[in-house]
Amino acid sequence: MNKNSGNFNKQNIAAAIALLLASSSANADTTLFDDRLKVNFYVAQGFQSIEAKDEAFRPEDREQESNFLRLRANLDLSFQITDHIRAYVDLAEEPNDFGNPDDVGFTINQDFGGIDFELLGMNGYETENETLILSVGNIGQSSFQFTGFQDGAVSQSNPVIGNSPVDFATAESGAQLAYTKIQPNQTIESWRVSGAVTGSSFGEAFQKDRGYNLFVTGTIETSYGVDIGLNYQKADQGDQVDITGDEIASLDGLVTPGYRFGDGENYNFSASATSSRETHVGLSPGLDLEVIALNVRYKPTENTTLIGRIGTAKDDYSFVDVNGDITAFQGATGGAVGIIKQESKIDFYVVEATQYIIPEKFYVAARYANSTNNSPGVNDEDTLDRIQVSAGYWFYDNTLVKVEYVDQNEDANSGGQIGGGFDGFSAEIAVKF
After folding, report:
1. 239 vs 405: CA distance, rounded Å
2. How far apart are CA 72 and CA 44, in angstroms?
3. Beta bridge partners of 8
4. 3-state SS, residue 305
5. Could you give the CA distance from residue 157 to residue 144 in angstroms, rounded to a whole number?
6. What distances in angstroms separate CA 305 from CA 230, 294, 302, 348, 397, one per listed residue?
7. From CA 94, how far away is CA 28, in angstroms rounded?
8. Residues with Cβ < 8 Å from 41, sequence gap 6 or more?
9. How buried is 244 (Cβ within 10 angstroms: 0-12 exposed, 13-18 middle, 19+ buried)?
10. Least-confidence region, from 76-85, 188-197, 256-265, 367-376
11. Of the candidates 4, 103, 12, which has an alpha carbon nearest to the alpha carbon of residue 52?
């Protein structure tokens, strides 16, 4: 543990949990208009005692006080327009997604939304065990399956508090076609395949030579408790720059996919905006980024879940600093100032385990993520890893309290954006109404 982590003590975390519990309550989901409208409201309050390590790029990150995070809140509305058409929107105040550089803006934003068309039913081919759904709007994609995810206040499916430094997650504007087949009483109980195309923006961007992002996923669930998923992500943004040899292109004006770093997390640093992605690997610019990942889940018992993911991410381009040397993005510290046409590549894996000590009530969980910079010419000091150890307790069916210890280590050539990494403790209460 970093020697500067002495700010944390048992009294801090006990006081945090007590205050968090004081704000919890239990309520059921709400449906209105003959179940045509479903409403869910999520609220999460967090607390952290986390510091960057001695090698951090910014001195102010190395000595941080423990304190509360800003409240996260999500309002989900789902409208069943007809039996086969559904519209939905998630309205959120998520500082880690929409925070501004001064961290003072409190704004409700559209975090996710779209329209689903169940094509088989619309055309008279509806069956009990088959669906073919066309989705338009915000299309969520990532390198992972089966594991939970921290998205603002929507965090109860995530057994730990943070995500992964290699989640490669995004939600962008586009369209997706997904087919699902359920096969009761068979070895392969269900399978699903989907394909999506999006623009490299959550909003609108029409710059010349800006391409599209392609996503393909496949999932198989078996009667043996073993499930397998494959994720493929491809960005086509390289036509925005025209460089050869040692030429350097500016970062200014480039449109890149949101998944190049991943989604926002509920960790924050003194020198960062709340919406920063600096806890992720910042190695690839994302112009011609390609990610492929294999996911496996195994449930030996109802109370035990094991998850593994292995993959690779590579780009035809790399970041460079003011001297033209290949570097990581390094968040707000300056770091990269341009792009060079030379491959950047990381190989990564993630393992996760969750064990319920008291069924449906109390669990312990751990997640380990590791990425290695395998770009040409990088031979050592190339690894970033993160370990998260957590415990969670359900006070009600919709009120979860979590505590976590996190330790991230970043070698000099790993693509880490904090510099050296960080460690410490955090706590969170997440309530669903």
Report:
1. 43
2. 5
3. none
4. strand
5. 14
6. 19, 17, 8, 21, 19
7. 23
8. 73, 74, 75, 76, 432, 433
9. exposed
10. 256-265
11. 4
Q: Grade residue 1 by pLDDT with cuts at 50, 70 and 90.
A: very low
257-303 residue pLDDT tens: 989 988 888 898 888 877 788 899 999 999 999 999 999 999 999 99
Q: How many CB atoms lie within 10 A of CB 400?
A: 23
Number of domains observed in the structure of the chain:
1
Tokens of 300: 């030996």
Give per-residue pLDDT as tens, 328-350: 887 655 678 899 999 999 999 99
Amino acid at residue number 280: H
Query: Tokens 């959550």 appear where?
Result: 202
Percent helix / strand / coil, the chain, rounded to 5? 10, 50, 40
The count of C-alpha atoms lying within 13 angstroms of the C-alpha of 54, restricted to the half-sphere facing its C-beta, is 4
Going from the C-alpha of 99 to that of each of 61, 96, 275, 298, 429, the distances in angstroms are 18, 6, 5, 37, 21
Tokens of 278: 């600096």
pLDDT in tens, 103-124: 556 678 888 999 999 999 999 8
Identify the CATH number of the domain in which residue 46 sits.
2.40.160.10
| Angle of CA points 140, 213, 156, to nearest 5° | 15
The range of the structural domain enclosing residue 360 comes to 3-432
Question: Which 8-state DSSP code applies to residue 276?
Answer: -
